[in-house]
């Protein structure tokens, strides 16, 4: 018997929940309240004989299908056999996906799971719905702010109420941070202090985001230059004994690009208000009072305060003041960290909701169905299927329509049966306890009710015969 076949034989085999983000991947089991491991979404892969570290999610449209298949295969092999230590053949899988996930990526990861790892079933669950599951609310405005993209989705009773998605793709602040560091930062090496651009040509900005924060909105007069930053500098260690010095202005103003807007004037705050404005008018107040913030960027200190400040400033502008008649904006306090909210929502999908309602097999794609169709349906149009793989009836059974004569005949038959049963219960000098209880519940004599119903049915039958 292989080694990994004996791992976890004595334990209950819960489903595996995997949330693959642009920066980090959360993986764990459906029985737990937090991810078992949070790892980088990168894999060291051999391409054309050269070992290269590639990202699992970003730029997947530029990769060939066979190359993407090899990358996802190696990455999931690392997740199963290095971190989770389970046999993939015995575990169902939940993949927390973004609504902007490409079809190529979905089909490739499904092919890897079914063909290579032979998992029993796979469920692709959207991020925005999973975030609401953690709070137990059916409606809300979900703002998913990740490392490479920001999505605003209005949800009403677990359905996207607007075809418009407030969307701003923002590889801007990581790129902006890299440009600022290359231009203005210094690095200390063994020979002395030199500009960073003279030592390194490319820089991984993910680790330096931790040194930044979101500053409040500058409230000075329009056109007045911003004063010099009073934030202290930070020395951040690099590999090889090198130390990079990050200035306070870079730490303070890196995230301003998300709130100041792009060339079209779109920012996170404007996307959020535009999404509410595109929704039906009867759902706007409910959405504005149920805003849910998820994603790793939301965890930056000062992000929530700055977002509320920007929203209330925009509500005073003529564009929104004349169309959005609301004065209250409320944001939920999620039970976990913002980067693990979608993963936690994937847990009750199996344990609390799908497990209790026994619809797990209806919404998941099984291995047999995938081998038959060789495709993955979209999450919004996943067809229901039976548990025992029985054929699905395309035509619904219609309710038979009965005439008044047939209805009266059925009523009279039931009344005769009821009167005969009542007479048997009441026969004899003494009544049984069962008969007494029936009389008390009925509140009177059952024979009188039966006889009256028989008379009414006979009258209706005579009227039908005269009309005929």
Automatic annotation (TrEMBL):
<dbReference type="InterPro" id="IPR004000">
    <property type="entry name" value="Actin"/>
</dbReference>
<feature type="compositionally biased region" description="Low complexity">
    <location>
        <begin position="436"/>
        <end position="453"/>
    </location>
</feature>
<dbReference type="Pfam" id="PF00022">
    <property type="entry name" value="Actin"/>
</dbReference>
<protein>
    <recommendedName>
        <fullName>Actin-related protein 10</fullName>
    </recommendedName>
</protein>
<feature type="region of interest" description="Disordered">
    <location>
        <begin position="436"/>
        <end position="468"/>
    </location>
</feature>
<dbReference type="InterPro" id="IPR043129">
    <property type="entry name" value="ATPase_NBD"/>
</dbReference>
<feature type="compositionally biased region" description="Basic and acidic residues">
    <location>
        <begin position="455"/>
        <end position="468"/>
    </location>
</feature>
<comment type="similarity">
    <text>Belongs to the actin family.</text>
</comment>
